[in-house]
Every structure is written in C-alpha cells, then in structure tokens.
C-alpha cells in the first residue's frame, strides 16, 4: 500500500493501525492511485520502474521538490540489481535520503493532504530555507479567506520529533514565532512571499497550526508532534 | 532611493493601509481572545515607527509608535494575569524585545512597568524561551529595574550564553552592561562600536535582523544607550546612522 507518494512497508491494516485517527490522515489514505515508491534516493511512481528517463520525469512530476537533489542508488541496492528493494532488514529506503530531502518529502505529504482538502499553497519560504514549511489557504467562493493552516513538517525514524526553540523567535509554531515569521515574510525581498506575509497578517485571527511527522514507513502522522501550548491555562 | 529603501517605503504604505483593518477586528474581543491581533497591531506600530524615522526623520512618530507597542505588550501581560486566554508565548521572556522598544522610545516609566510584569513564569519560560532569550530577558529586566543584587548575576549568565549561542554578535551589549555596572563612561564609545559591529553582522544572511526594519536602525542599541544615559548617568556617544543622536535622550 502507498500513502502520500511513499510505499508503506507493512500491510494495510498495520498501516491504518499506525496512522492516527485524524481526518487528514484518513484523506491521505484514500489517495493511492497516484502513488509510487522510494528506491534508494529516488522516488518512482509505481507503474514506471524500467525506463530510467521516464522514471525520473515521473518522479519529478510526482515530487517536484526533489528535482534539485542529486539522486543516487545506494551501493547495496545497486548490487542486488533490484532498485525497488529495500534490503533484507526491512529498513526504509527513505533512510538513504539526506535530511533536506526527508524534510521535502514531509512537506510534500502535507501539501498533498491539504490540496485534497481544497487548500491552496502560498509562497512562504524565506531565504536559506528559513521560515514556515507551508502556508495553505482555503478561499470562499467570493474570494475571501475562510481558513489558513501553517504547517511544520518533520521526519523521524524513531517516531519522536519536537518543535525547536529558536533564538529570538521562540518555539516553532508558537504564536510568537508565527508573528515574528510573518514579519520577516512581510520584509522579504521576494514579492510573492511579501504578499503571503501581508495576507497572513491581515487574517492573523484565522491562522491555525498543524505539524506532520513523516515516518520511514512513509506514513505521515498529524497528531504525533506536540504543538505549543496555545493559551493561558491550556 | 535604493531598492532597499524603496521596499521600506512600500512596506510603510502597506502597514498604514492594513492598520485600520486590524483595529476594526480588535473591536471584536473574541477575535483577539489569545492576543494575536494585539500582537499584530503592536508589531505594525513598531514597523511604522521605525520606517517613519528612517524615511522621514520623524522622531515623534518613532517614539509614539514604539511606546504604543510597548503599552499593548504590557496590556497582554495584564490580560493574561487576569485569566484571559492570552497565548503563553506572549508572556515569556522574549518580551525583552518590547522592553528594548520602550527604552528606545525613552518611555522609562512604561519600561519599568513592563520589566516588573516580565518574569517569574517558570513553566512558560522553560517551555517557550530559547536559553539566549531567557538570559537576555532577565538581564535586561534587572538593569531596567536597577536591581543591584540581580544585575551582576544575570550579566554573568548572559555573557556565558552569548559565548555559546551567539558568539561575537552581542559582545557589545555585554560590554555596555558592564560599563553601566562600573559607572565607567570612558569605555562606552568602544562598547557602542562593538554593539554596532555586531548589529551589522546580524543584519546579513541568516542574522536575526536581516529581515526586519532593524537593519536600518539599531533599535535595541538605541534602547541600550538611552538606558545607560538616563538610568546610569553614563556619557555614551551616538553611532550614526544606526544609533542616531536625535533618538537619544540627553
């Protein structure tokens, strides 16, 4: 079974059992048709495993986030001649990806889920890969903003991940951190990022936060990371 | 006008355009139940105040806007203490940044009130504050309150954290704090130079001031010099253009 573009190593039941009962995760599970698998450092859509060029093109189509990464098959996989193999130990091929690539896959999983739920992603990245991982907006038919979700994506082989305390901005996804990041976006040199910052600021009361955790199995979990305490006494 | 100042001008126009919208939303207490709109308004006042000085030289606008931002911050502490659902992150020690704004605006009474409101929320501070912000918050609070028993101890902690977490960038702050403790004005020019050098360094690349209006004006440095002059009677020079003379108290 495949979820969010990645192969699940276990059976469907096991995958479902490991996925939290979150509506977002459930919507992810429904999207098997467009999925593929990880082979070494490359993502390959399921039906395209022979022609290298086609594979790469389709992989890039499925995960444009990985286009700029160098993609190599690790030696053990190249030797056994089966690019889809994940080795006898059952360890996930995602482990061969760099930290940045894993982060991109986590972000891609979030992006797919929220796109299915009708959200549009807005440019939000600050220079040097800083800032919010994702900003997703749902618009009403009249064009007004209905809902905004800011996401943070993590990858963890242990299943544990934490939001970092950042110098001069506070804990990731805390209200303080969001305010400070919005301010940085509003001062960005990129006009599209500035526009997103302005939209967030004008609709600050509508901003919600979500964090997803990508596991080596390919499962993206949405309630695994403890979010910052949001308010007095809560 | 260079590109950078063109952007600042454009941002000022956006801030002025968006401000009434936030003020309208604030009339609904439910919309600001966790303080996000108050915080947004506070930041917009600051942004406008700094831009008005950099672009138009308006000292009065700079002071009034930064003071208003500090008043909003203090009000969030009061709302929190009265049981409102204000976000914990708005009452952590990172609010030293707002304390700097009040010192820069020369509103020392309000700065003292905010310093008194800050701190003592151990659980919140442990969960929210980066060690650097925690140390900076407590040392600045101690200096604003002129709490002799705390200043030396807190400065020691801050210096240690600076060396580990922010090497180089904040040494000028440490030096100026030391000048205030010793009452020695003779070193203060060098301390301000070091502070400005650190600020310039932190206004580039991934530096904390790189994507803020602070790259045009060293607001925290203005706050430090104002505090040194007004509360510790030091003769500290200006350092134009980042710490300009007309924003300093005599």
Largest sheet features of chain B? none
Estimate the mean pLDDT confidence of chain A.
70
Low-confidence stretches of chain A: 1-52, 68-92
Report the mean per-residue pLDDT of chain B as an integer.
96
- Rg from alpha-carbon coordinates of chain A: 18 Å
Judged by helices, strands and strand pairing, the structural class of chain B is: mainly alpha
- Domains counted in the coordinates of chain A: how many? 1
Q: How many individual helices of chain B? A: 11
Strand content of chain A: 15-25%
What is the H-and-E element order of chain B? HHHHHHHHHHH
Number of E-type strands of chain A? 13
Features:
heterodimer, A: 234 residues, alpha+beta, 5-stranded mixed sheet, two-stranded antiparallel ribbon, 7 helices, disordered N terminus, B: 250 residues, mainly alpha, globular
Secondary structure topology:
The complex is a heterodimer of chains A (234) and B (250).
Chain A: E1 2-3, E2 6-7, H1 12-18, H2 23-29, E3 36-39, E4 42-45, H3 52-62, H4 75-80, H5 99-116, E5 120-122, E6 125-126, E7 130-131, E8 134-139, E9 145-155, E10 165-166, E11 170-171, H6 175-186, H7 191-202, E12 207-214, E13 220-221
Chain B: H1 3-25, H2 36-56, H3 59-81, H4 96-104, H5 108-117, H6 122-128, H7 131-144, H8 148-165, H9 171-182, H10 188-201, H11 219-232
